[in-house]
Design a protein that fits this description.
It contains eleven helices and four strands. It is of the alpha+beta class. It has two domains: 10-185, no CATH class; 189-314. The protein has a four-stranded antiparallel sheet with strand order 1-2-3-4, with helices on one face.
Length: 315
């Protein structure tokens, strides 16, 4: 049977199914991402250095749920209404092909997840966090797979109580996951302050790199910050700095090999670790700071070409 049957409205119904499938992909993926990040936040896995809690992943998941979730729900409701009104054929080509495609993907995800779980168990790398993540994948694949399996097999196309229950469960899950994600992410104002703090650290780090270059060429540190900036205007470190942060930079020469630099922070580095996650630990490890004005003692490492080229001490 052709994907676009000769029945009336087949093109429109095919469009509905295609949009619903596309939105379903984003919605299911984002639901999984939120659950993963909740697990990473409350049950951090030290073995997963690059797959830990990520604020950026949560933001993407929220965006996808807010956009794709209502789109999926709306088009799925239109499809169920058309089936109940007999304006869409139960055995239509688009309905059969795309529903079985979803079932295929759910089956593949389930099989891959089970294989991954067994492999992790045999290799001794299974943890409570990884076990919960496997359950998340199986849960999502099972829920969506069971819904479409029931939808394909049901004979009563009127507004089924089972379909209504699935719809209610979807809405409740959607609301709960978005609320959990917003709780972890915080407000946009907090996100802006976090970025501002991160930029402050980047500026201090870039200025310290420029100070290293000046120290190597002059064998001492400059008496004022402007001399270091003028000496490095063509460098990469200078280009990543902005006038806003250069203007607020506080520099005091302590000796020929050390200087004091201060910056203003909205949050302490411990708060950054709590909010942003283990993957973004550069501030906490290399530039630990408290909220407010924080000064650092930066000492040059003479004759050492290896990174780091300077030592940072919190004052």
């Amino acid at each position: 049977m052709s994907l676009f049957s000769s029945a009336d409205n087949s093109a429109k119904h095919s469009f509905w199914y295609l949009v619903a499938c596309f939105a379903l992909g984003f919605t299911a993926l984002s639901m999984g991402q939120v659950m993963y990040q909740v697990i990473n936040y409350y049950i951090p896995d030290m073995a997963e250095t690059y797959n830990g809690y990520s604020l950026e992943v949560l933001r993407f998941a929220i965006s996808s749920l807010l956009v794709a979730g209502p789109i999926y729900f709306y088009f799925q409701k239109m499809i169920n209404k058309a089936l109940a009104d007999k304006t869409m054929k139960n055995e239509g080509g688009a309905r059969r092909w795309l529903t079985y495609l979803i079932l295929l993907l759910a089956s593949v995800v389930t099989i891959v997840s089970l294989v991954s779980f067994v492999n992790s168990y045999l290799s001794g790398s299974i943890t409570s966090a990884s076990f919960l993540k496997i359950l998340v994948v199986l849960f999502l694949a099972g829920i969506y797979g069971s819904y479409y399996n029931y939808d394909m097999r049901r004979k009563d196309l009127d507004r089924s109580i089972v379909i209504k229950r699935y719809s209610l469960a979807f809405v409740i899950s959607w609301v709960v996951l978005i609320a959990m994600a917003f709780y972890l992410v915080g407000s946009p104002a907090v996100a802006r302050d976090l970025k501002k703090d991160a930029k402050q650290v980047s500026t201090l780090s870039a200025f310290s790199d420029m100070a290293v270059d000046y120290h190597r060429s002059e064998k001492l540190l400059a008496p004022v910050a402007q001399d270091i900036l003028d000496n490095s205007r063509s460098s990469y470190s200078y280009k990543i700095m902005t006038d806003e942060f250069i203007k607020d930079l506080s520099y005091t020469k302590i000796s020929d090999d050390s200087f004091q630099a201060c910056g203003n922070f909205v949050f302490g580095s411990d708060e950054h670790m709590k909010v942003r996650g283990s993957y973004d630990d550069y501030q906490s490890v290399n530039w630990p700071h408290e909220a407010g004005t924080q000064c650092f003692l930066i000492t040059m490492k003479n004759g050492d070409d290896h990174w780091p080229k300077y030592k940072v001490k919190q004052l």
